[in-house]
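ok trying again, last paste got cut off:
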Amino acid sequence: MDCKYLVIGNSAGAIAAVEAIREVDREGECIMVAAEKYQAYSRALIPYYLAGEFELEKMYYRAADFYVKNNIRAILGEKAVRIDFLHKEVEIADGQRIRYGKLLLATGSLASVPIIEGLSYSYDSNYGEKFDKEGVFTFTSLDDAIEIKRRVESGFVKKAVVLGGGRIGLMAAEALIRNRLDVTVIKRSERLLPEVFDGTASRMVKNHLKESGLRMLIGHTLKAVTGERSVEGVILNDGTEIKCDLLIIAAGVGPRVELVRDTEVKINRGIVVDRRMKTSVPDVYACGDCAEVYDFAQQDYRLTPVWAAAYAGGRIAGFNMCGLEKEYRWGTNMNSMHFFGLSVITAGISAEDEENGNGYAVLKEIDEEKKIYEKIVIRDNRLIGMILMNKIERGGIFLGLMRAGINVSSFKEELLSDDFGLISLPEELRRGICTGTMKW
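nice, full thing came through this time. structure:
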């Protein structure tokens, strides 16, 4: 079969791309191929679904008729297995071959599974990681979420171990605790989320988690998993044994690039793209967790595995696939997190602890009792990073200042004052924002 646009993937970047395509070209044949069988859903909502905060239907962020209404042929539950770039043809698992005009790779990410004694796994194109013991999951797919929820609600699961103290691991742990499970988190490094938290943020969140009843064992890894057919426990690197009937492996994710490995597509850590989301191969684009995109705060290309970056990159890719040239300009590593009622927003270069040789200046306000932490990172009088904890209302203003590259020297000392807001900005800047003449 032939198509003008072929999109491999069905998550944020892929959906954004086909929406952008349809804004420009309503008729061009568009096909989407995705390994998972479900309509577009949000992986970020998996913990909330498991915690019982809403039903399965609310996981989907586009209606079931989205594909029909947008004249998209969706081939779901089938994995793309090979690409012939010379003949512009993609082969999928059922043997079909699809010839394309423009191709978008929005393949997402895969869970990182360390080598653990007593545990092996394989990768199933329609499911994800499949382990040789029941009760072991990676918490990255809807199938995982549905099966974990079924097990928890059965009443037979009492104790859980989570390997990894990143965002996914901590949110999984919270969801399990809300289901009245006894939960232990195993984490190798001392600092939580070291890519976005500095020492202060890590310590404050860690203390809050302990107060909330979460048991964390820092400085440990898993040596072995016990049990024959089902997980019965884990053994740590120091020999400590912990009994459990559920094991969540949340030791990080990596870009899913196996489809284009050892091909003409240039790969660093992820697929290398320019600001138009073009790869090194003509008529081939990439976006989302699998791609290294431009980070305006870092002023460099990097993996940015967050939903907002994937969606923004997808739109840019879609427009360019239609010949409407646009550049990806405003992306950075921005995270919005909630841990047992504690809200945290991070963006840009946020993990710096103090001023250093790179020319960063750091402004901080801390209230340990109220669990409030505000931090701004400045370079060359421009805001390039932030951490906001339990006082997140001004996150939008700070992000706007970051994106616009505003020189904050004239109001730098006011940034963390309690009454800082749009009214605090210089009049010319406020006028530009209100009239839309300034990109915000």
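cool. The chain has three domains: 2-110+254-321, 113-251, 342-435. DSSP finds nine helices and 27 strands in the chain.
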